[in-house]
Amino acid sequence: MSQFIQLHLLTSYPPSNLNRDDLGRPKTAIMGGANRLRVSSQSLKRAWRTSDIFTDALGEYRGTRTKRLGIEIYEALLGKDVKPKNAAVWAKAIAGVFGKLKTLNKKEEAKLAKDDTAEKEKKALTEKPFEIEQLAHVSVEERGAVSALIDALVTENRAPEKDELALLRNNNKAVDMALFGRMLASSPSYNIEAAAQVSHAITVHSAKVDEDYFTAVDDLNNHEDDAGAAHIGEAGFSAGVFYAYICINRDLLIENLQGDGELANKTIAALMECAAKVSPTGKQNSFASRAHAVYMLAEKGTQQPRSLSVAFLKPVQGQNQAEDSIEALKKQRANFDQVYGACADDFRTMNALNGEGSLEGLIKFVTE
User: Fold this and answer.
1) pLDDT tens for each residue of 245-284
2) What is the model's pTM?
3) CB 220 within 8 A of CB 262
4) Rounded to an integer, what is the distance from CA 306 to the centroid of its chain?
5) Cα Rg for the chain, rounded, in angstroms?
6) Quick count: other Cβ atoms within 10 Å of Cβ 19?
7) Packing angle between helix 261-277 and helix 359-367, nearest 10 degrees?
8) pLDDT cut 90: percent of the chain above it
């Protein structure tokens, strides 16, 4: 069986709105009959993979998630003095390898042809036929192949040939693709199974979303005619201690990285540091709700993984929510071991509340 690394984190956030729903309020979920705050796994992974920590450690191996690859190619061709008509045809052919392209409807075509269409809207309509319908995750190797093809087409002043459009790769070393996977509906043979599974983070206690009623004052208003606010608004927020769970299939990660165990360890180390230190970016300017994990449990072994979220099925009560959450997590881990036998070969912890352990020690433990 594969070797699994399981990470359990508790992070306390002050008043914040880390991950918004369609109404702009903090996302929530019902668990154990109580309303909890929630941060989606997509929000967490986005924050981690685009963070300075991840980029500094692995930037040369990080892929690109985008719909705009065709636009980038089109502009690159124009920048190399390719005629617009040829640039459009070549860019669509290349971008279409990574997914189905968007098309203009008749109403949009008519707008694009009108002289009175706003410049910003005209630009968006011009770019639309080069956009991929779904976000495509493109590896460094694939972007390199695209760049090489562009150079060849410009040098030889010709359209791409069919065999040159075989741009997708199976021998990628894109660490974010190796961790979080890739799905290409039109080219499933190039899909990548995610080596890391990330839970939605939820509060260990019940939580209520409050409304921040705020006003903004006009600095040039001397209050002679109007003493009122220049703007009035409301913004949802809440606070809580969040539990998050990450499961990494180390063997699959190494396989996804073409057998590079050293790069896999660097990837695991970067992910752990991000998970402990990097907060989602939602409303940070309004709340400055950056936080580091107060507790982290790292396990490794070949046993079947399991989350410890059941420790918080009954909401944590009282004034010492962080301390009580740590104790609940420890107790649930011990209870699982009591019933099922050891659920991991070994484990280590870090507790920032009392200064025990270290993130460096946990990283060394899971990567050695």
Assistant:
1) 999 999 999 999 999 999 999 999 999 999 999 999 888 9
2) 0.93
3) no
4) 22
5) 25
6) 22
7) 150
8) 85
